[in-house]
Protein backbone atom coordinates (compact mmCIF):
# COMPACT_ATOMS: atom_id res chain seq x y z
CA UNK A 1 0.00 0.00 0.00
CA UNK A 2 1.22 3.52 -0.69
CA UNK A 3 1.63 5.55 2.48
CA UNK A 4 -0.14 8.85 3.02
CA UNK A 5 1.92 11.92 3.84
CA UNK A 6 0.53 13.89 6.75
CA UNK A 7 1.71 17.40 7.49
CA UNK A 8 1.91 18.58 11.06
CA UNK A 9 1.16 22.15 12.12
CA UNK A 10 4.50 23.92 12.32
CA UNK A 11 4.82 24.11 16.13
CA UNK A 12 3.33 20.95 17.52
CA UNK A 13 4.81 21.00 20.99
CA UNK A 14 6.37 24.31 21.90
CA UNK A 15 5.07 27.79 21.07
CA UNK A 16 7.79 29.48 18.96
CA UNK A 17 8.69 32.09 21.55
CA UNK A 18 9.26 29.80 24.53
CA UNK A 19 11.30 26.78 23.43
CA UNK A 20 13.08 25.89 26.57
CA UNK A 21 15.15 22.72 26.60
CA UNK A 22 17.00 21.01 29.40
CA UNK A 23 20.48 20.69 27.88
CA UNK A 24 23.58 18.92 29.20
CA UNK A 25 24.89 22.22 30.45
CA UNK A 26 21.66 23.33 32.11
CA UNK A 27 18.53 24.94 30.82
CA UNK A 28 18.88 27.29 27.90
CA UNK A 29 16.76 28.89 25.27
CA UNK A 30 17.55 26.87 22.21
CA UNK A 31 17.73 29.34 19.37
CA UNK A 32 19.62 31.96 21.28
CA UNK A 33 22.37 29.82 22.72
CA UNK A 34 22.89 26.48 21.01
CA UNK A 35 25.81 27.70 18.92
CA UNK A 36 29.25 26.30 18.41
CA UNK A 37 31.35 29.20 19.76
CA UNK A 38 29.83 28.76 23.23
CA UNK A 39 30.90 25.15 23.28
CA UNK A 40 34.56 25.36 22.35
CA UNK A 41 35.80 27.22 25.45
CA UNK A 42 33.95 24.70 27.61
CA UNK A 43 35.73 21.70 26.08
CA UNK A 44 39.07 23.50 26.18
CA UNK A 45 38.53 24.19 29.88
CA UNK A 46 37.71 20.56 30.51
CA UNK A 47 40.79 19.49 28.58
CA UNK A 48 43.01 21.78 30.63
CA UNK A 49 41.51 20.44 33.85
CA UNK A 50 42.57 16.98 32.76
CA UNK A 51 46.02 18.17 31.81
CA UNK A 52 45.05 17.22 28.25
CA UNK A 53 44.95 13.54 29.24
CA UNK A 54 42.30 11.02 29.96
CA UNK A 55 39.73 12.44 27.53
CA UNK A 56 38.67 10.46 24.55
CA UNK A 57 36.57 11.65 21.67
CA UNK A 58 34.25 8.85 20.68
CA UNK A 59 33.78 8.54 16.91
CA UNK A 60 30.38 10.04 16.21
CA UNK A 61 27.85 9.54 13.42
CA UNK A 62 24.71 11.63 13.15
CA UNK A 63 21.87 9.92 11.31
CA UNK A 64 19.27 12.13 9.68
CA UNK A 65 16.50 9.65 8.93
CA UNK A 66 13.01 8.39 9.61
CA UNK A 67 11.83 6.35 12.58
CA UNK A 68 10.66 2.80 11.84
CA UNK A 69 8.21 1.62 14.51
CA UNK A 70 9.20 -1.97 13.73
CA UNK A 71 12.84 -0.96 14.43
CA UNK A 72 14.32 -3.02 11.59
CA UNK A 73 15.24 -0.06 9.39
CA UNK A 74 15.51 3.73 9.71
CA UNK A 75 16.94 5.51 12.72
CA UNK A 76 16.60 2.43 14.89
CA UNK A 77 18.76 0.35 12.53
CA UNK A 78 21.29 3.18 12.29
CA UNK A 79 21.72 3.48 16.05
CA UNK A 80 22.07 -0.29 16.49
CA UNK A 81 24.55 -0.60 13.60
CA UNK A 82 26.78 2.19 14.87
CA UNK A 83 26.57 0.85 18.42
CA UNK A 84 27.60 -2.59 17.22
CA UNK A 85 30.69 -1.06 15.60
CA UNK A 86 31.62 0.95 18.69
CA UNK A 87 30.56 4.34 17.34
CA UNK A 88 28.24 6.87 18.99
CA UNK A 89 25.13 7.69 16.96
CA UNK A 90 22.94 10.74 17.47
CA UNK A 91 19.67 11.03 15.55
CA UNK A 92 17.71 13.76 13.83
CA UNK A 93 14.29 12.36 12.99
CA UNK A 94 12.77 13.51 9.71
CA UNK A 95 9.57 11.46 9.81
CA UNK A 96 7.80 8.97 12.01
CA UNK A 97 6.54 5.88 10.20
CA UNK A 98 4.02 3.28 11.30
CA UNK A 99 5.73 0.22 9.91
CA UNK A 100 6.05 -3.51 10.54
CA UNK A 101 7.08 -6.68 8.74
CA UNK A 102 4.06 -6.37 6.43
CA UNK A 103 4.84 -2.88 5.15
CA UNK A 104 4.43 0.82 5.87
CA UNK A 105 1.01 1.76 7.23
CA UNK A 106 1.60 5.50 7.67
CA UNK A 107 4.15 8.29 7.34
CA UNK A 108 4.14 11.39 9.50
CA UNK A 109 6.79 13.90 8.37
CA UNK A 110 8.37 16.09 11.03
CA UNK A 111 7.98 19.81 10.16
CA UNK A 112 11.02 21.17 8.35
CA UNK A 113 11.67 23.84 10.98
CA UNK A 114 11.81 21.19 13.65
CA UNK A 115 14.23 19.08 11.60
CA UNK A 116 16.35 22.22 11.39
CA UNK A 117 16.12 22.67 15.14
CA UNK A 118 17.22 19.10 15.86
CA UNK A 119 20.14 19.54 13.44
CA UNK A 120 21.22 22.72 15.16
CA UNK A 121 21.00 21.11 18.61
CA UNK A 122 23.25 18.21 17.66
CA UNK A 123 25.66 19.85 15.23
CA UNK A 124 26.32 22.94 17.35
CA UNK A 125 27.32 20.92 20.37
CA UNK A 126 28.34 17.36 19.79
CA UNK A 127 31.38 17.21 17.47
CA UNK A 128 29.84 15.01 14.82
CA UNK A 129 32.37 13.27 12.54
CA UNK A 130 30.09 11.91 9.85
CA UNK A 131 26.50 12.63 8.80
CA UNK A 132 24.49 9.76 7.32
CA UNK A 133 21.13 10.40 5.71
CA UNK A 134 18.24 7.99 5.28
CA UNK A 135 14.61 8.91 4.69
CA UNK A 136 14.38 12.60 3.70
CA UNK A 137 10.65 12.98 3.04
CA UNK A 138 10.63 16.31 1.18
CA UNK A 139 12.73 18.71 -0.86
CA UNK A 140 12.31 21.13 2.05
CA UNK A 141 14.09 18.74 4.43
CA UNK A 142 16.91 18.24 1.92
CA UNK A 143 17.34 22.00 1.75
CA UNK A 144 17.33 22.35 5.55
CA UNK A 145 20.00 19.65 5.78
CA UNK A 146 22.21 21.23 3.11
CA UNK A 147 21.98 24.61 4.88
CA UNK A 148 22.86 23.03 8.24
CA UNK A 149 25.88 21.25 6.77
CA UNK A 150 27.12 24.50 5.26
CA UNK A 151 26.87 26.12 8.70
CA UNK A 152 28.33 23.14 10.59
CA UNK A 153 30.62 21.20 8.24
CA UNK A 154 31.48 17.58 9.10
CA UNK A 155 34.23 15.23 7.87
CA UNK A 156 32.04 13.28 5.47
CA UNK A 157 28.46 12.88 4.27
CA UNK A 158 26.99 9.44 3.49
CA UNK A 159 23.73 9.63 1.52
CA UNK A 160 21.45 6.61 1.34
CA UNK A 161 18.84 7.94 -1.09
CA UNK A 162 15.89 6.12 0.48
CA UNK A 163 12.84 6.51 -1.75
CA UNK A 164 10.71 3.41 -1.61
CA UNK A 165 10.78 0.74 1.11
CA UNK A 166 11.49 -2.82 0.06
CA UNK A 167 7.79 -3.46 0.67
CA UNK A 168 7.09 -0.98 -2.16
CA UNK A 169 5.84 1.96 -0.06
CA UNK A 170 6.79 5.56 -0.85
CA UNK A 171 9.11 7.12 1.75
CA UNK A 172 9.95 10.31 -0.10
CA UNK A 173 8.09 12.73 -2.36
CA UNK A 174 8.80 11.93 -6.03
CA UNK A 175 9.85 15.57 -6.46
CA UNK A 176 12.68 14.86 -4.04
CA UNK A 177 14.70 13.35 -6.88
CA UNK A 178 15.49 16.92 -7.86
CA UNK A 179 16.54 17.77 -4.28
CA UNK A 180 18.99 14.89 -4.29
CA UNK A 181 20.32 15.56 -7.77
CA UNK A 182 20.59 19.32 -7.51
CA UNK A 183 21.79 19.87 -3.97
CA UNK A 184 22.65 16.96 -1.74
CA UNK A 185 24.70 14.80 -4.10
CA UNK A 186 27.22 17.55 -4.74
CA UNK A 187 27.96 17.61 -0.99
CA UNK A 188 28.03 13.83 -0.58
CA UNK A 189 31.16 11.74 -0.16
CA UNK A 190 29.26 8.59 -1.02
CA UNK A 191 25.77 7.85 -2.32
CA UNK A 192 24.38 4.31 -1.86
CA UNK A 193 21.29 3.68 -4.02
CA UNK A 194 19.75 0.24 -4.38
CA UNK A 195 18.75 -0.90 -7.88
CA UNK A 196 15.34 0.79 -7.85
CA UNK A 197 16.75 4.03 -6.48
CA UNK A 198 19.61 4.08 -8.99
CA UNK A 199 17.12 3.52 -11.77
CA UNK A 200 14.80 6.31 -10.50
CA UNK A 201 17.73 8.72 -10.18
CA UNK A 202 18.59 8.08 -13.84
CA UNK A 203 15.08 8.55 -15.21
CA UNK A 204 13.97 4.91 -15.04
CA UNK A 205 16.77 3.04 -16.86
CA UNK A 206 16.59 -0.72 -16.52
CA UNK A 207 19.29 -2.29 -14.30
CA UNK A 208 19.55 -6.04 -14.64
CA UNK A 209 23.24 -6.90 -14.87
CA UNK A 210 26.54 -6.04 -13.20
CA UNK A 211 27.49 -4.09 -16.34
CA UNK A 212 24.26 -2.06 -16.01
CA UNK A 213 25.15 -1.35 -12.37
CA UNK A 214 28.62 -0.11 -13.37
CA UNK A 215 27.29 2.31 -15.92
CA UNK A 216 24.61 3.51 -13.47
CA UNK A 217 27.30 4.11 -10.84
CA UNK A 218 29.27 6.20 -13.35
CA UNK A 219 26.21 8.25 -14.33
CA UNK A 220 25.32 8.91 -10.68
CA UNK A 221 28.93 9.91 -10.06
CA UNK A 222 28.42 12.63 -12.67
CA UNK A 223 25.74 14.11 -10.38
CA UNK A 224 28.44 15.12 -7.89
CA UNK A 225 29.29 12.59 -5.17
CA UNK A 226 32.92 11.50 -4.68
CA UNK A 227 32.04 7.80 -4.54
CA UNK A 228 29.01 5.73 -5.55
CA UNK A 229 27.90 2.33 -4.31
CA UNK A 230 25.11 0.71 -6.32
CA UNK A 231 23.73 -2.07 -4.10
CA UNK A 232 22.73 -5.31 -5.70
CA UNK A 233 20.64 -6.90 -2.95
CA UNK A 234 17.78 -7.08 -5.45
CA UNK A 235 19.79 -8.11 -8.52
CA UNK A 236 17.71 -10.76 -10.28
CA UNK A 237 19.11 -14.30 -10.68
CA UNK A 238 22.17 -13.60 -8.61
CA UNK A 239 23.53 -16.22 -6.25
CA UNK A 240 25.99 -13.70 -4.76
CA UNK A 241 25.18 -10.35 -3.15
CA UNK A 242 27.05 -8.07 -5.56
CA UNK A 243 27.54 -4.34 -5.01
CA UNK A 244 29.35 -2.00 -7.37
CA UNK A 245 31.72 0.61 -5.97
CA UNK A 246 32.82 3.42 -8.29
CA UNK A 247 35.66 5.66 -7.11
CA UNK A 248 35.59 8.11 -10.00
CA UNK A 249 38.01 6.05 -12.07
CA UNK A 250 37.38 2.39 -11.59
CA UNK A 251 34.39 0.13 -10.88
CA UNK A 252 35.08 -2.41 -8.12
CA UNK A 253 32.80 -5.44 -8.00
CA UNK A 254 32.27 -6.33 -4.34
CA UNK A 255 31.09 -9.88 -3.90
CA UNK A 256 29.43 -11.34 -0.80
CA UNK A 257 27.50 -14.52 -0.12
CA UNK A 258 23.76 -14.14 -0.58
CA UNK A 259 22.12 -15.30 2.66
CA UNK A 260 18.83 -17.11 2.19
CA UNK A 261 16.52 -15.42 4.67
CA UNK A 262 13.32 -13.36 4.89
CA UNK A 263 15.01 -11.06 7.42
CA UNK A 264 16.46 -8.42 5.09
CA UNK A 265 14.45 -5.41 6.24
CA UNK A 266 16.89 -2.59 6.95
CA UNK A 267 19.95 -3.92 5.07
CA UNK A 268 20.35 -0.67 3.15
CA UNK A 269 20.08 1.56 6.24
CA UNK A 270 22.49 -0.68 8.12
CA UNK A 271 25.03 -0.75 5.30
CA UNK A 272 25.11 3.06 5.02
CA UNK A 273 25.37 3.46 8.81
CA UNK A 274 28.23 0.97 8.99
CA UNK A 275 30.04 2.86 6.22
CA UNK A 276 29.57 6.07 8.21
CA UNK A 277 30.73 4.36 11.42
CA UNK A 278 33.90 3.05 9.78
CA UNK A 279 34.62 6.47 8.26
CA UNK A 280 34.15 8.01 11.72
CA UNK A 281 36.82 5.62 13.02
CA UNK A 282 39.18 6.81 10.29
CA UNK A 283 38.92 4.12 7.63
CA UNK A 284 39.39 5.03 3.98
CA UNK A 285 36.22 4.75 1.86
CA UNK A 286 36.67 1.39 0.13
CA UNK A 287 37.75 -0.24 3.37
CA UNK A 288 34.70 1.25 5.14
CA UNK A 289 32.41 -0.12 2.43
CA UNK A 290 33.98 -3.57 2.59
CA UNK A 291 33.72 -3.72 6.38
CA UNK A 292 30.10 -2.55 6.19
CA UNK A 293 29.22 -5.18 3.62
CA UNK A 294 30.85 -7.92 5.68
CA UNK A 295 28.91 -6.73 8.75
CA UNK A 296 25.55 -6.94 6.91
CA UNK A 297 26.39 -10.41 5.62
CA UNK A 298 27.39 -11.67 9.09
CA UNK A 299 24.30 -10.12 10.72
CA UNK A 300 22.00 -11.70 8.11
CA UNK A 301 23.72 -15.03 8.48
CA UNK A 302 23.42 -14.96 12.25
CA UNK A 303 19.76 -13.88 12.07
CA UNK A 304 18.62 -15.96 9.11
CA UNK A 305 16.22 -18.10 11.14
CA UNK A 306 14.90 -15.64 13.71
CA UNK A 307 11.17 -14.92 13.58
CA UNK A 308 9.88 -11.44 14.37
CA UNK A 309 6.46 -10.50 12.96
CA UNK A 310 4.23 -12.31 10.49
CA UNK A 311 4.86 -10.32 7.32
CA UNK A 312 7.10 -11.17 4.36
CA UNK A 313 10.18 -9.18 5.45
CA UNK A 314 11.55 -9.39 8.97
CA UNK A 315 14.27 -7.44 10.78
CA UNK A 316 17.66 -8.92 11.68
CA UNK A 317 19.78 -8.76 14.80
CA UNK A 318 22.41 -6.02 14.67
CA UNK A 319 23.79 -6.96 18.07
CA UNK A 320 24.67 -10.51 17.10
CA UNK A 321 28.26 -9.98 18.14
CA UNK A 322 27.24 -9.69 21.76
CA UNK A 323 25.76 -13.17 21.56
CA UNK A 324 27.68 -15.20 19.02
CA UNK A 325 29.65 -17.90 20.82
CA UNK A 326 31.39 -19.06 17.68
CA UNK A 327 32.88 -15.72 16.85
CA UNK A 328 34.07 -15.13 20.39
CA UNK A 329 33.52 -11.56 19.43
CA UNK A 330 32.14 -10.55 22.78
CA UNK A 331 35.61 -11.36 24.11
CA UNK A 332 37.87 -10.13 21.37
CA UNK A 333 38.15 -6.43 20.75
CA UNK A 334 38.58 -5.27 17.16
CA UNK A 335 42.10 -4.96 15.79
CA UNK A 336 44.11 -2.24 17.47
CA UNK A 337 47.03 -1.11 15.33
CA UNK A 338 49.00 -0.30 18.49
CA UNK A 339 49.27 -4.05 19.07
CA UNK A 340 51.91 -4.03 16.31
CA UNK A 341 54.34 -2.27 18.69
CA UNK A 342 56.44 -5.32 19.56
CA UNK A 343 55.51 -8.13 17.23
CA UNK A 344 57.15 -11.46 18.11
CA UNK A 345 57.43 -14.07 15.33
CA UNK A 346 58.23 -17.53 16.70
CA UNK A 347 60.56 -19.90 14.87
CA UNK A 348 60.50 -23.66 15.46
CA UNK A 349 64.15 -24.09 14.33
CA UNK A 350 65.33 -21.62 16.96
CA UNK A 351 63.17 -23.21 19.62
CA UNK A 352 64.75 -26.59 18.81
CA UNK A 353 68.22 -25.08 18.88
CA UNK A 354 67.66 -23.61 22.37
CA UNK A 355 65.70 -26.67 23.44
CA UNK A 356 62.57 -24.84 24.46
CA UNK A 357 58.92 -25.49 23.70
CA UNK A 358 56.89 -23.08 21.64
CA UNK A 359 54.67 -22.36 24.63
CA UNK A 360 57.69 -21.41 26.76
CA UNK A 361 58.91 -19.15 23.96
CA UNK A 362 55.53 -17.45 23.69
CA UNK A 363 55.19 -17.05 27.46
CA UNK A 364 58.67 -15.53 27.70
CA UNK A 365 58.09 -13.09 24.86
CA UNK A 366 54.83 -11.91 26.44
CA UNK A 367 56.55 -11.58 29.80
CA UNK A 368 59.18 -9.41 28.13
CA UNK A 369 56.50 -7.14 26.63
CA UNK A 370 55.53 -8.56 23.22
CA UNK A 371 52.19 -7.07 22.14
CA UNK A 372 51.27 -9.56 19.40
CA UNK A 373 52.54 -13.02 18.51
CA UNK A 374 52.82 -14.77 15.17
CA UNK A 375 53.31 -18.51 15.16
CA UNK A 376 55.26 -19.99 12.28
CA UNK A 377 55.88 -23.36 10.64
CA UNK A 378 55.34 -26.82 12.08
CA UNK A 379 53.80 -30.07 10.86
CA UNK A 380 50.02 -29.72 10.66
CA UNK A 381 49.19 -31.89 13.67
CA UNK A 382 51.85 -30.30 15.84
CA UNK A 383 50.99 -26.92 14.48
CA UNK A 384 47.33 -27.18 15.53
CA UNK A 385 48.21 -28.54 18.96
CA UNK A 386 50.89 -25.91 19.51
CA UNK A 387 48.62 -23.16 18.26
CA UNK A 388 45.85 -24.24 20.63
CA UNK A 389 48.21 -24.19 23.58
CA UNK A 390 49.57 -20.78 22.54
CA UNK A 391 46.02 -19.46 22.09
CA UNK A 392 45.31 -20.23 25.72
CA UNK A 393 48.40 -18.35 26.88
CA UNK A 394 47.80 -15.40 24.57
CA UNK A 395 44.13 -15.08 25.44
CA UNK A 396 44.81 -15.11 29.15
CA UNK A 397 47.23 -12.20 28.63
CA UNK A 398 45.05 -10.31 26.15
CA UNK A 399 47.74 -10.62 23.43
CA UNK A 400 46.51 -11.49 19.92
CA UNK A 401 47.89 -14.62 18.27
CA UNK A 402 48.22 -14.77 14.49
CA UNK A 403 49.07 -17.84 12.44
CA UNK A 404 51.55 -17.63 9.60
CA UNK A 405 50.05 -18.68 6.21
CA UNK A 406 47.75 -21.41 7.48
CA UNK A 407 44.10 -20.34 7.42
CA UNK A 408 43.07 -23.92 8.30
CA UNK A 409 45.20 -23.90 11.44
CA UNK A 410 43.87 -20.47 12.42
CA UNK A 411 40.30 -21.72 12.02
CA UNK A 412 41.06 -24.92 13.94
CA UNK A 413 42.37 -23.07 16.99
CA UNK A 414 40.18 -19.96 16.65
CA UNK A 415 43.30 -17.80 16.45
CA UNK A 416 42.93 -14.03 16.22
CA UNK A 417 44.07 -13.92 12.61
CA UNK A 418 46.47 -14.91 9.87
CA UNK A 419 49.56 -13.38 8.29
CA UNK A 420 50.11 -14.12 4.60
CA UNK A 421 52.96 -13.47 2.18
CA UNK A 422 52.76 -12.47 -1.47
CA UNK A 423 52.84 -16.08 -2.66
CA UNK A 424 50.30 -17.37 -0.11
CA UNK A 425 46.51 -17.34 -0.32
CA UNK A 426 45.33 -13.84 -1.38
CA UNK A 427 44.14 -11.70 1.55
CA UNK A 428 40.79 -11.25 -0.22
CA UNK A 429 40.17 -14.99 0.00
CA UNK A 430 41.50 -15.19 3.56
CA UNK A 431 39.04 -12.47 4.56
CA UNK A 432 36.20 -14.41 3.01
CA UNK A 433 37.17 -17.52 4.97
CA UNK A 434 37.89 -15.84 8.30
CA UNK A 435 35.10 -13.23 8.32
CA UNK A 436 35.28 -9.56 9.20
CA UNK A 437 36.48 -9.81 12.82
CA UNK A 438 39.76 -11.66 12.41
CA UNK A 439 43.05 -9.87 11.89
CA UNK A 440 44.75 -10.22 8.50
CA UNK A 441 48.30 -9.10 7.80
CA UNK A 442 50.11 -9.15 4.46
CA UNK A 443 53.85 -9.01 3.77
CA UNK A 444 54.58 -6.18 1.32
CA UNK A 445 57.73 -4.83 -0.25
CA UNK A 446 56.24 -2.23 -2.56
CA UNK A 447 53.61 0.53 -2.52
CA UNK A 448 51.58 -1.42 -5.11
CA UNK A 449 51.46 -4.47 -2.86
CA UNK A 450 50.40 -2.27 0.06
CA UNK A 451 47.59 -0.80 -2.04
CA UNK A 452 46.42 -4.28 -3.00
CA UNK A 453 46.47 -5.45 0.65
CA UNK A 454 44.19 -2.55 1.54
CA UNK A 455 41.81 -3.27 -1.33
CA UNK A 456 41.74 -6.94 -0.27
CA UNK A 457 40.58 -6.01 3.23
CA UNK A 458 43.79 -6.62 5.23
CA UNK A 459 44.22 -4.95 8.64
CA UNK A 460 47.94 -4.24 8.55
CA UNK A 461 51.01 -4.85 6.42
CA UNK A 462 54.39 -6.28 7.42
CA UNK A 463 57.09 -4.46 5.47
CA UNK A 464 60.60 -5.76 4.83
CA UNK A 465 63.13 -7.24 5.00
CA UNK A 466 64.40 -3.94 6.18
CA UNK A 467 67.88 -5.30 7.00
CA UNK A 468 69.54 -8.54 5.88
CA UNK A 469 68.61 -11.54 8.00
CA UNK A 470 69.50 -15.18 8.32
CA UNK A 471 65.88 -16.29 8.88
CA UNK A 472 64.93 -15.79 5.24
CA UNK A 473 67.28 -16.83 2.49
CA UNK A 474 67.23 -14.95 -0.80
CA UNK A 475 64.97 -12.35 0.71
CA UNK A 476 65.33 -9.01 -1.03
CA UNK A 477 66.28 -6.29 1.44
CA UNK A 478 64.43 -3.00 0.93
CA UNK A 479 66.29 -0.87 3.50
CA UNK A 480 64.97 2.11 5.43
CA UNK A 481 64.19 4.00 2.21
CA UNK A 482 62.09 1.14 0.90
CA UNK A 483 60.27 0.95 4.24
CA UNK A 484 59.56 4.66 4.19
CA UNK A 485 58.23 4.56 0.63
CA UNK A 486 55.82 1.75 1.53
CA UNK A 487 54.69 3.48 4.75
CA UNK A 488 53.97 6.70 2.88
CA UNK A 489 51.88 4.87 0.30
CA UNK A 490 50.12 2.51 2.70
CA UNK A 491 46.64 3.27 3.95
CA UNK A 492 47.08 0.49 6.49
CA UNK A 493 49.23 0.44 9.63
CA UNK A 494 52.70 -1.02 9.09
CA UNK A 495 55.02 -3.20 11.14
CA UNK A 496 58.65 -3.32 9.99
CA UNK A 497 60.39 -6.70 9.75
CA UNK A 498 63.77 -8.16 8.80
CA UNK A 499 66.93 -8.14 10.86
CA UNK A 500 65.51 -5.78 13.50
CA UNK A 501 66.58 -5.92 17.15
CA UNK A 502 67.48 -3.61 20.04
CA UNK A 503 70.58 -2.35 18.17
CA UNK A 504 68.77 -0.93 15.15
CA UNK A 505 65.05 -0.60 16.13
CA UNK A 506 65.57 3.07 16.91
CA UNK A 507 66.80 3.83 13.39
CA UNK A 508 63.72 2.08 12.02
CA UNK A 509 61.20 4.00 14.12
CA UNK A 510 63.08 7.24 13.38
CA UNK A 511 61.90 7.25 9.76
CA UNK A 512 58.92 9.06 11.29
CA UNK A 513 56.00 7.60 9.34
CA UNK A 514 52.86 7.96 11.49
CA UNK A 515 51.47 4.62 10.34
CA UNK A 516 54.66 2.71 11.27
CA UNK A 517 53.36 1.18 14.47
CA UNK A 518 56.19 -1.08 15.55
CA UNK A 519 58.73 -3.74 14.69
CA UNK A 520 58.56 -7.49 14.28
CA UNK A 521 61.42 -9.57 15.63
CA UNK A 522 62.45 -13.19 15.10
CA UNK A 523 66.15 -13.96 15.75
CA UNK A 524 66.72 -10.99 18.03
CA UNK A 525 64.23 -12.55 20.46
CA UNK A 526 64.15 -16.28 19.82
CA UNK A 527 67.74 -16.98 18.80
CA UNK A 528 68.93 -15.74 22.19
CA UNK A 529 69.51 -17.41 25.56
CA UNK A 530 67.02 -15.23 27.44
CA UNK A 531 63.91 -14.22 25.50
CA UNK A 532 62.46 -12.19 28.38
CA UNK A 533 65.42 -9.86 28.73
CA UNK A 534 65.84 -9.47 24.94
CA UNK A 535 62.15 -8.56 24.59
CA UNK A 536 62.49 -6.08 27.44
CA UNK A 537 65.53 -4.47 25.79
CA UNK A 538 63.74 -4.17 22.47
CA UNK A 539 60.65 -2.79 24.16
CA UNK A 540 62.59 -0.10 25.99
CA UNK A 541 64.28 0.98 22.73
CA UNK A 542 60.84 1.22 21.11
CA UNK A 543 59.38 3.13 24.06
CA UNK A 544 62.28 5.55 23.92
CA UNK A 545 61.83 6.02 20.15
CA UNK A 546 58.12 6.68 20.50
CA UNK A 547 58.52 9.18 23.35
CA UNK A 548 61.17 11.05 21.34
CA UNK A 549 58.84 11.07 18.34
CA UNK A 550 56.06 12.54 20.52
CA UNK A 551 58.38 15.23 21.87
CA UNK A 552 59.52 16.26 18.40
CA UNK A 553 55.93 16.72 17.12
N1 LIG B 1 20.27 -11.83 1.18
C1 LIG B 1 21.38 -11.10 1.29
N2 LIG B 1 22.55 -11.69 1.66
C2 LIG B 1 23.68 -10.97 1.77
N3 LIG B 1 23.75 -9.66 1.57
C3 LIG B 1 22.62 -9.00 1.20
C4 LIG B 1 21.39 -9.68 1.04
N4 LIG B 1 20.45 -8.76 0.69
C5 LIG B 1 21.07 -7.58 0.63
N5 LIG B 1 22.38 -7.71 0.92
C6 LIG B 1 23.39 -6.67 0.99
O1 LIG B 1 22.86 -5.66 1.85
C7 LIG B 1 23.26 -4.37 1.41
C8 LIG B 1 22.00 -3.53 1.15
O2 LIG B 1 21.54 -3.81 -0.14
P1 LIG B 1 20.05 -3.76 -0.64
O3 LIG B 1 19.25 -4.75 0.11
O4 LIG B 1 20.11 -3.88 -2.12
O5 LIG B 1 19.65 -2.29 -0.20
P2 LIG B 1 18.25 -1.71 0.25
O6 LIG B 1 17.95 -2.26 1.62
O7 LIG B 1 18.46 -0.24 0.26
O8 LIG B 1 17.25 -2.17 -0.76
C9 LIG B 1 24.11 -4.61 0.16
O9 LIG B 1 25.47 -4.67 0.54
C10 LIG B 1 23.64 -5.96 -0.33
O10 LIG B 1 24.60 -6.63 -1.11
C1 LIG C 1 12.05 4.86 8.23
C2 LIG C 1 12.61 4.02 7.15
N1 LIG C 1 13.76 4.36 6.56
C3 LIG C 1 14.29 3.58 5.58
C4 LIG C 1 13.64 2.44 5.16
C5 LIG C 1 14.22 1.57 4.06
O1 LIG C 1 14.57 0.29 4.50
P1 LIG C 1 14.44 -0.97 3.51
O2 LIG C 1 14.93 -0.53 2.16
O3 LIG C 1 15.32 -2.02 4.10
O4 LIG C 1 12.99 -1.33 3.54
C6 LIG C 1 12.42 2.10 5.79
N2 LIG C 1 11.74 1.01 5.43
N3 LIG C 1 11.95 2.91 6.79
MG1 LIG D 1 17.04 0.88 1.07
Can you summarize this structure?
The chain is of the alpha/beta class and 553 residues long.
Mean of all residue-level pLDDT scores: 86
Which segments are poorly predicted (pLDDT under 50) over 5 or more consecutive residues? 1-53, 325-332
What percent of the residues sit in helical stretches (DSSP H or I)?
25-40%
Number of strands: 19
What is the number of domains? 2
CATH superfamily of the largest domain: Ribokinase
Largest sheet report: 9 strands, mixed
Taking all Cα atoms into account, the compactness measure Rg is 26 Å
Assigned CATH class of the largest domain: Alpha Beta
Measured between the Cα atoms of the first and last residue, the distance is 61 Å
Which class best fits the helix and strand makeup? alpha/beta
Shape: elongated
Q: What's the arrangement of strands in the largest beta sheet?
A: 5-4-3-6-7-8-9-10-11
Which architecture of the largest domain does the CATH hierarchy give at level 2? 3-Layer(aba) Sandwich
Kindly report the CATH topology of the largest domain: UDP-N-acetylmuramoyl-L-alanine:D-glutamate ligase
Strand content: 15-25%
So how many helices? Answer: 20
The bound ligands are: adenosine-5'-diphosphate, (4-amino-2-methylpyrimidin-5-yl)methyl dihydrogen phosphate, magnesium ion
Amino acid sequence: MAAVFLTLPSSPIFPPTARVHAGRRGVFVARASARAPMIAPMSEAMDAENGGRGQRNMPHVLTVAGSDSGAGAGVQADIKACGALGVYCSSVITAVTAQNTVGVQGVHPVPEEFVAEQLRSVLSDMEVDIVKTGMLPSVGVVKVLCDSLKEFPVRALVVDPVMVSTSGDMLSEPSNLAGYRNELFAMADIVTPNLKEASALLGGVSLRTVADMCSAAKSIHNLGPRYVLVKGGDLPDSSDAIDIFFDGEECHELYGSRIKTRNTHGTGCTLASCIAAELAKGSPMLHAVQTAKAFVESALNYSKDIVIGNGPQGPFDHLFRLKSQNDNVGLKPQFDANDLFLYAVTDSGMNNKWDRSITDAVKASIEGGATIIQEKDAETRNFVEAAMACMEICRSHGVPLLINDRVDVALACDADGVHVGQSDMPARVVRKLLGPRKIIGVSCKTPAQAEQAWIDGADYIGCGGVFPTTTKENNLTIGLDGLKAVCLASKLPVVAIGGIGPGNAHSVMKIGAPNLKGVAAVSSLFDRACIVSEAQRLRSVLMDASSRARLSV
